[in-house]
From TrEMBL:
GO molecular function: RNA binding; structural constituent of ribosome
Keywords carried by this UniProt record: Ribonucleoprotein, Ribosomal protein
InterPro entries documented for this protein: bL21-like, bL21-like_sf, Ribosomal_bL21
Taxonomic lineage from the root: Eukaryota, Metazoa, Spiralia, Lophotrochozoa, Annelida
GO cellular component: mitochondrial large ribosomal subunit
UniProt-listed Pfam families: Ribosomal_L21p
Name of the protein in question: Large ribosomal subunit protein bL21m
Family: Belongs to the bacterial ribosomal protein bL21 family.
Keyword Ribonucleoprotein: yes
GO BP, sorted A to Z: translation
Species name: Capitella teleta
Amino acid sequence: DETSESSELVEKVNSQLNSEDVGRLFAVVHLGGLQRKVTTEDLILVGKRIEADVGDRIILNKVLLVGSKDFTLLGRPVLHQDVVKVEATVVEKTLTRPIIRSYYRRRKKFRRFKLQRFPQSVLRINSIQLNP
């Protein structure tokens, strides 16, 4: 009985995947050491420098999960590139605001201040496609 229910469920999900109208998709991607839930037209601030230039389109390969309101596909640990394709554009590459690091030794008249700025990138998610 359970096998028939599971096979019916798999058939429903497969028929919905094959149809063109799956609704608005979301994906969980691993980017910059963090997992982020994204949909189309989202802006993502990544705390690392991305090797692509501003305006370049990149493909996010580490997709952990993709879904819509009716179904969810889970990767163990990631989904294969033939199943889902998440495409993004590099919008901006900047540095963070200055972070002040202070060094102090007591009773020695020793104080040092150092300003640090770290690279960051902004991405816009262009599309999430199933079975590209």
